[in-house]
Amino acid sequence: MGGLGVCFFLLFSLLSVSSEGGIIGVNYGRVADNLPSPASAVQLLKANNITHVKIFDANSAVLEALAGSGIIVTVMMPNELLQTTATSPSYAAWWVWFNVAPYYPLTKIHTIAVGNEVFSDPTNLTSYLVPAMINVQAALVQLNLDKAIKVSTPVELSTLQSSYPPSAGTFRTDLAETVMMPMLQFLRNTGSYLMVNAYPFFAYEANANDISLDYALFRPNAGVLDSGSGLTYYSLLDAQIDAVVYAMSALNYDDMPISISETGWPSEGDANEIGANVKNAAEYVGNLISRVLSDTCGTPKRPHCNMDVYLFALFNENQKPGPTSERNYGMFYPNEQKVYDVNFVLGNSNNSTSNNGSNVRSSNGNSSETWCVADPSAGEEKLLVALNFACGEGGADCTAIQPGAACYEPNTIEAHASYAFNSYYQKSGKGSWTCNFGGTAYVVSQAPKIGKCTY
Ligand SMILES: *[C@@H]1O[C@H](CO)[C@@H](O)[C@H](O)[C@H]1NC(C)=O
Ligand SMILES: *[C@@H]1O[C@H](CO)[C@@H](O)[C@H](O)[C@H]1NC(C)=O
Ligand SMILES: *[C@@H]1O[C@H](CO)[C@@H](O)[C@H](O)[C@H]1NC(C)=O
Ligand SMILES: *[C@@H]1O[C@H](CO)[C@@H](O)[C@H](O)[C@H]1NC(C)=O
Ligand SMILES: *[C@@H]1O[C@H](CO)[C@@H](O)[C@H](O)[C@H]1NC(C)=O
Ligand SMILES: CC(=O)N[C@H]1CO[C@H](CO)[C@@H](O)[C@@H]1O
Asked: Which atom of ligand 6 is nearest to the CA of 47?
């Protein structure tokens, strides 16, 4: 029990700096021959309260369908155009004039992504990237759109030379000074932000023996200590993002905001694609949304809530090449049925029975119908891990179980865990998954009576 107090102390310092939640958007990819029309897709976005969308081009039909929807849009200049854009300011001006200006402001375009994962492009476009961004920015300035529309580019995690532990994060040596530094300076000068595509699935799939699924899926877990920083990580996504933060920090760009421009988990894969299944996809996406929309969505290095996350992807895309997983990242089938149950707004469902691993709230917003309590048969050791998770990463309000506070007595791990689990459960929307804690908790429909504590 001695360790418990120390742990709580550290955790409270994290909780006290949290602010309101981040943004959830989705990537609307269209590498498929069976998708609904752009107008139907926009209806689907609206029906699901999805407020931000990113597309992989500047398709006019899509931008027209989004007009007047209120949805905030990131458009993309495809990689094939980077060389021309970098070498010809007049081409850049034309591209913006033709592909962006006509749609704004009716279509709320707010970022132009210049290229996508450019450092992985087989044709080596590296030297064109920053000049293309600069020319696109100049075009926006000419059209007086630069205040409303930012320029950025999504970088892939392989931009990092080193990412483990996060505090050792650095950019690839061939990119750090020549590309990343001028890019970060450009982003800073223009008040923009860095876009990062991050897939814990790839790391898990490749190292399933070393990385726990709990850690990859935001489940309660014992955490991974970064001995370089002394910070403990409870999710692989946090560790990946903080590695980028540390890499920027090494170049003296500590302050640069990040948007997670792609992340997701496939609902199906080939036999050798470990972890690609519907259950894991539902948990990854559901837990991530809960987390981003709650007030605990910062990373250990940046505890202020700064997680803007664009889920990949809206639809399964049947014409993507590569392993089966590539065609199965969608949250929706082309017929608009959900691949798994997921909600994009907290507190907006009236049906909690259909939930498995997502963030569905209880019916009619009645916050006092069900409670989450610890299962004593799980044993103290497992309960303690889950308790630390709930009060730390989970963001449960654990003040009442501090020494001297109302729910400190009875001073047992089981009682404290029940309090913390319930706090987490109530706070994160009462989705069935949010009362699991690695199988150490269950939902009850009678208010628990433990000591003098009020739940
Ligand atoms: C890509 O091009 C740059 C110069 O344009 C060069 O320095 C770099 O070595 C090239 N990278 C690869 C992988 O060929
Ligand atoms: C709530 O339930 C009713 C049927 O009971 C259904 O028609 C309605 O669409 C549901 N609303 C939401 C937001 O799920
Ligand atoms: C809730 O969801 C379940 C499973 O999807 C479904 O069978 C049931 O009809 C839904 N109930 C309401 C009231 O919508
Ligand atoms: C939800 O979870 C329960 C218990 O784990 C399982 O029996 C059920 O089949 C799941 N439902 C769906 C739709 O995945
Ligand atoms: C909410 O739950 C409380 C306690 O179970 C109950 O008394 C009340 O009637 C519920 N309210 C609604 C609107 O269902
Ligand atoms: C925040 C938000 O847009 N909420 C809306 C989500 O969708 C429901 C209908 O399904 C609306 O009633 C909410 O206003």
From this structure: 10
> Is the C-beta atom of 43 inside 6 A of ligand 6?
no
Query: Which of the four pLDDT bands, split at 50, 70 and 90, describes residue 22?
Result: confident
Task: Answer yes or no: do 400 and 320 share one domain.
Answer: no
Q: Residue 3 falls within a domain, yes or no?
A: no
Index of the ligand 1 atom closest to the CA of residue 124: 1
Q: How many CB atoms within 10 Å of residue 380?
A: 14
Which range among 106-120, 337-351, 419-433 has the greatest average pLDDT?
Answer: 106-120
442 and 364 fall within a common domain: yes
What is the secondary structure of 57-115 as a DSSP string?
S--HHHHHHHTTS--EEEEEE-GGGHHHHHH-HHHHHHHHHHHTTTTTTTSEEEEEEES
- 107-116, 129-138, 232-241, 293-302: segment of lowest average pLDDT: 293-302
Residue 414 a catalytic site member: no
Mean pLDDT of 290-306: 80
Residue 40 dihedral angles phi and psi, to the nearest 5°: -65, -40
> Residues 319, 379: one domain?
no
Distance from residue 16's CA to the centre of ligand 2 (Å): 36
Whether 268 is a known active-site residue: answer no
Tell me, yes or no, whether 380 and 421 share the same domain: yes
As a whole number, mean pLDDT of residues 100-120 equals 97
The protein residue whose alpha carbon is closest to atom 14 in ligand 3 is 351
Task: Find the domain containing 182 and state its range.
Answer: 17-327
Pocket-testing residue among 345, 350, 359, 360, ligand 6, by greatest number of atoms within 8 A of Cβ: 345
* Average confidence (pLDDT) over 67-95: 97
The CATH number for 177's domain is 3.20.20.80
Span from the CA of 203 to the centroid of ligand 5 (angstroms): 45
User: Does position 21 have pLDDT exceeding 90, yes or no?
Assistant: no
pLDDT at 19: 36
Ligand 5 atom closest to 366 (CA): 1
Cα of 310 vs centre of ligand 1, distance in Å, is: 30
Rounded to the nearest angstrom, the distance between the alpha carbon of 348 and the centre of ligand 5 is 17
Dihedral (Cα; 175, 265, 440, 443), 10-degree rounding: 130
Q: Are residues 304 and 444 in the same domain?
A: no
pLDDT band for position 364 (cuts 50, 70, 90): very low
